[in-house]
Amino acid sequence: MSYIMLALQEPAHGYVIMQKVEEMSDGDVRIAAGTLYGAIENLMKHKLIERVETEDARRKVYVLTDKGREILQLDMQRMQHIIDVYKGGNINEEI
Question: What predicted TM-score, i.e. pTM, was given to this entire model?
């Protein structure tokens, strides 16, 4: 889900999202179309992404919402804290 949200900082349709996720993960994460659209529905349900109207009615384009950006930022801070704790060697003290 995080990779999808990162891919949707700019409007994109399904195929572009799949390409961006694979690129961002250095090929480690490949999302099948069915998995992607299930995740998209879930992200839309939680109002983290929204559909954007485009001139091409054949393609559904999505983008991160303000709430989605906020959640992505909080997740980044959480991950950075974990890295900082790990690097500081204070793992037992923080837990």
Answer: 0.83
Residue 40: C-alpha distances to residues 11, 65, 85, 95 (Å): 13, 13, 33, 33
Q: Where are the alpha helices (DSSP H) in the chain?
A: 2-7, 14-24, 33-45, 66-88, 91-94
| Strand-pair partners of 52 | 61
CB proximity list for 44: less than 8 A, separation 6 or greater: 50, 51, 62
- Report the candidate in 93, 22, 17 with the shortest Cα–Cα distance to residue 62: 17
pLDDT at 57: 82
Fold of 1-87: Arc Repressor Mutant, subunit A (1.10.10)
The domain spans of the chain are 1-87
